[in-house]
Amino acid sequence: MSTAMTEPAPLLELQSVSKRFGSTIALRDISLAVNAGEIHCLLGDNGAGKSTLIKILSGVYKADGGRMLVEGEETVFASPRVARDRGIATVFQDLAMAPLMSVSRNFFLGREPVRNRWPYLAFDVERAAQVTREEMIRLGIDVRDPNQLVGTLSGGERQCVAIARALYFGAKVLILDEPTSALGVHQASKVLRFIVQAKSTGVGVILITHNINHAYPVGDVFTLLNRGRSLGTFRKSAISHEDVLNAMAGGETLSL
Q: Within a domain: residue 5?
């Protein structure tokens, strides 16, 4: 007697999600699914609806229509903290880092390891530095000194710290908002390699960008947005670099 094998539910799924601000329709019937160990690229030019979709996924906004499911369970995030507790971690462009604090302090910002007993608690500097260095090395980045100020790091290195922080605290889905937008070629390549390394740990990655030259080499699945609507979702084997570029430029719905 054989048992039918069933596919695991996507880590995160949207079904016909819409969002309206007054008379403006920001998103219309957007559907996508993010699976473990995949990089799902969300592509679109300015005004395509990427920022609104990020804020729905991260618990900042609530959708006006449609459903969101986390590992098959219908979910509504009441706040970004609830989303984070469910394993949905978002790294925004500003990275939410304090430049005048150390790498290790930023790594544990809001979740600091402590030593001693109440009421004499103190930040455990040694443990924070050790964990920060180990986690960065595990993902292929050798931090020179975990106690150096974050402001002394390059933009690419700061992105890597933010990603490593999210993974350490249990992210199942990692949402990256334009992680290479302000980086040079070398730093962007470093961040993209780091994203691929993060994917290999089994998390699902949502890479939001308008730069097809950064997305296509690392992406597994592509969802194309234009003016709040989806032009389709395609696996890499079903769509070429040129097709993606043409759709983003002209807004034509693809049928492959």
A: no
**What is the distance between the alpha carbons of residues 143 and 154, in angstroms, rounded to a whole number?**
11
Pair (168, 49) in one structural domain: yes
Domain identity same for 47 and 87: yes
What residue spans of the chain are helical by DSSP H?
Answer: 50-57, 80-85, 103-107, 125-138, 155-168, 185-199, 212-218, 241-250
Residues 107 and 92 in one domain: no
* 127 and 93 fall within a common domain: no
Instruction: Express each pLDDT in 123-175 by its tens digit.
Output: 899 999 999 999 888 877 778 899 999 999 888 888 889 999 999 999 999 99
SS3 call for 152: helix
pTM of the predicted protein model: 0.88
CA 242 from chain centre, in angstroms, equals 25
Number of domains present in the structure of the chain: 2
> DSSP letters of 219-239?
-SEEEEEETTEEEEEEEGGG-
Q: Give CA–CA dist 63/153, Å, rounded.
A: 37
β-bridge pairing 88-91 and 65-70: unpaired
In which domain, by residue range, is 117 found?
A: 101-148
